[in-house]
Amino acid sequence: MGTLNVQGIRNKTGEIIKGLEKMKQDITILTEMKKKGNGVEILGPYLHFYSGVSKEERAKRGVSILVKKRYKSYITTSEAVNENMIKLHMNLFGKKLCILGIYAISDDENAVVKDDFFWEIK
Q1: What is the DSSP letter of 93?
Q2: Which residues lie below 8 Å from residue 64, measured CB to CB, with a gap of 6+?
């Protein structure tokens, strides 16, 4: 498992996948994807669960979880909470596992935005 701040996933997918394959990463959290919407897609040998801003907004923030396709049958649910948080539940090796992908709010954000973020993760 690992995490990677990609500072925008557009035009970097091949490079990201190649690097993760080299490091033998089975599950990776990507932050600052700058991808709009939520969903699941296939990226090479991975399932990509993503959560970003709405399609009407400027692409910013965003978080996702990449999981090797061989673990697909172990995934029970996924939830795109908002552009800063995503959840993935798995039953892996007889254990229930909840993976949280969180891209924290910047200290530069106003107090209301920070309060909303920290309230959401409780």
Answers
A1: T
A2: 9, 29, 30, 33, 35, 48, 49, 50, 51, 86, 101
Residue 37 burial (CB < 10 Å; 0-12/13-18/19+)? middle
Distance separating alpha carbons of residues 42 and 60, to the nearest angstrom? 21
Instruction: Confirm whether pTM is higher than 0.85.
Output: yes
Beta partners for residue 90, in sequence order = 75, 97
pLDDT tens sequence across 18-39: 999 999 999 999 999 999 999 9
CA distances, 96 to each of 50, 76, 103 (Å): 21, 10, 23
